[in-house]
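This part of the workshop introduces the protein records we will be handling. The question running through the whole workshop is how a given chain folds. To make this concrete, we reproduce a full record directly below:
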Amino acid sequence: MKPVAIFRHLPIEGPGYFATFLDNNHIPWRLIKIDAGETPPTQIDKFSGLVFMGGPMSVNDDLPWIDNSLSLIRQAVATDVPVLGHCLGGQLMAKALGGLVYANPVKEMGWGEVNVADNPVARAWFDDLTTFQSFHWHGETFSLPKGATCILSSSYCDNQAFALGIHLGMQCHVEMTERLVRDWCSVAAEELADSNEPGVQSIDEIETNLPNRIAGLNAVAERLYNKWIVHLK
């Protein structure tokens, strides 16, 4: 099998549990370090799937790699190569496919409940799961691209995930590990301490019962990733 291309946009926002999942399932992958100035590919023919991770930038920023990423996503969708997006990655997918990316009413930073939509597309991805605690770390959100179906929502963000056939774009972070959570909290300690937004938690709130929370999130991620890899070419 050709490797899965994973696009990283910040050193501490790597693939996390997704890389563990691929390794456990003996699926090859290649990390493309956009943050280190690595030149992204222009064609997708060497990859079985495309995965875009998070990052602090906006897809509306004037950055040299964004147009290339949007083009790769469009190529993949046009040729049925599965695409998976986490947070910024989901926003890239939305924009590439005709949606808009704009400021969310409030920032979400920390743990929060997401609800699985009551529609057949959401059922296909989540089976009998109706709600779970996910991790959030974003100030922007996306509108749904044409033909996409919303499959997750939360009280602070209407569009937490969308599916378009075999492609899955998420606003929330299901890829988290304990290390990622602690690293993000460390880097954003001042912002977390100074914020008074209802969707932003303190470090103590975020790190309480962290091993069990991560185990629960890993189980949800496993469910989604297992369905996504079925379509790898």
